[in-house]
Amino acid sequence: MQTINNIYQIGSRNINLAQFFEKPISFSKCFCFILGACLWYVITTGAYHDSGSGFERHVCLYGGSSTTCSFGSALGFFAFVGSAVAIYIDLRLPNESSMPTKRRIMKIDIYIAVSFACIHLLAFIMFWSKVGNSVPDEANLSYAKIGIMISLFASIAWGITSLLAYRRFEEFNLEIKINELESDGKQKPDESSVANGVDPAQAASPQAVPFTDGYGY
After folding, report:
1. I need a surface site. Which of 9, 14, 64, 76 has the fewest CB within 10 A?
2. Distance of CA 162 to the CA centre of its chain
3. pLDDT tens digits for 65-78?
């Protein structure tokens, strides 16, 4: 609940679109957003065959299993919403000053990306193994096959997003450690340097540590 409140507080601050689109992870999340919407639309509108009669009038093209079609439709919807939330967090995250809050939100970002990558991979295997089974010969499988490809691309996109999110999290931790080392160095000047006549202010200032912004942060 505390993390949700922190995310809401982040949302009350200004958005920096220029900074947002400088990061590869932002493009990856936008691509996931588009794929989620496409999967939801394709499964909902084209993954059923209208037999025209009988109790089971609308037959799912994935092995005739309505559960599979419902799963695909729900996955597309939640991927659409989840990627939208992830994009919203990325828009607001740079304005958050609390380091512990940033760390928690970055962890949630990683968990979301990894979860959707695994679920989309499972959906791809399920759709691919069932498409066209136990359905009429005249059924149009075009949308069903598109759904298979979308689930594969979405799994790859979410996998890339999870890697970028993990790299950002590691760079964030590295930046904190560097700042702590610099702070300790400023508080404790080198005694040997002071003894040799070096200005204590200069001895307390450590050399700059090379650091790269890296990908996604």
Report:
1. 14
2. 6
3. 889 989 999 999 99
Both structure tokens of 11: 């949302």
Give the pLDDT confidence of 46-61 residue by residue, as tens digits. 888 776 655 455 788 8
Task: Classify residue 181: in a domain, yes or no.
Answer: yes
Residue 150's domain spans which residues?
2-203
pTM assigned to the model: 0.74
Cα(5)–Cα(86) distance, integer angstroms:
15
Question: Which 3 state secondary structure label does DSSP give 33?
Answer: helix
Within-domain flag for 195: yes
pLDDT bracket for residue 134 (50, 70, 90): low
Residue 182 CB contacts under 8 Å (≥ 6 apart), including other chains: 206, 209
Provide the token pair at 214.
């890296």
